[in-house]
Amino acid sequence: LEKVGDGFAPALAVEAPLLLVALQCEGRYILLASQTVPVLTLAVVVVLREFVTTPLVYRLGQLHGTSMLGWFDRRMPRMGRIMRAVERLFWRRRHLAVFLLPGGLTAVLAGSVGMSRAMLYPLTIAGETLRVVLLLVLGALASAPLDHLLGAMGRYQWQFTAATLGLTVVSL
Asked: Cβ distance 57 to 111 under 8 Å?
């Protein structure tokens, strides 16, 4: 679903920004959606979208520990280095790591060490909420350039969409 969002991002940003954010919750798409979608609606969709995979990924961490991180080390060394840096932060300050970096990696790590769901879930939701608030503030501060970008995307949405769809297919 994320790749569908990426491929059709220009058209969705103009025609259905909330659907775009539901498919792909990247900060750039949240910034664009912040110009046309009500703040509370956008915040709820983003937090729910990002939280929905947390229980599953937590369970994977319980079952497999951090052994699956080795796959990233072998196949994507740069991503592996970033993940190992997050892992080091997690070992020093678990709760802070989950709050500041909510998502799949910290949920896997939380599952691998047996962090309680009662601690993981509220920290994940609070961290995602903070991220959304910061992006919404940034969107308000940069509203003029974002509106200009959305206008250009609206005028050339099919050309942009064809280009992003092609790039997405090539990346797959």
From this structure: yes
Question: What distance in Å separates the CA atoms of residue 162 and residue 120, rounded to the nearest whole number?
Answer: 40
How would you classify residue 72: left for phi > 0, otherwise alpha for psi between -120 and 50, otherwise beta? Answer: alpha
pLDDT score at 70: 73
Q: Which residues contact 18 (CB under 8 A, 6 or more apart)?
A: 33, 37, 41, 42, 45
One-letter amino acid for residue 124 of the chain: T
The two structure tokens encoding residue 94: 């678990």
pLDDT digits (tens, 9 = 90+) for 156-172: 999 999 999 999 999 88
Share of the chain above pLDDT 70, in %: 98
Would you state the structure tokens that stand for residue 117, as one six-digit string? 């769901």
Q: In whole angstroms, give the CA distance from residue 127 to residue 50.
A: 10
Alpha helices in 16-156 (DSSP H): 17-23, 27-33, 39-51, 54-64, 69-75, 77-92, 94-100, 104-113, 117-141, 143-155
The DSSP letter of residue 101 is S
Residue 59 and residue 115 in contact, taking contact as beta carbons nearer than 8 Å: no
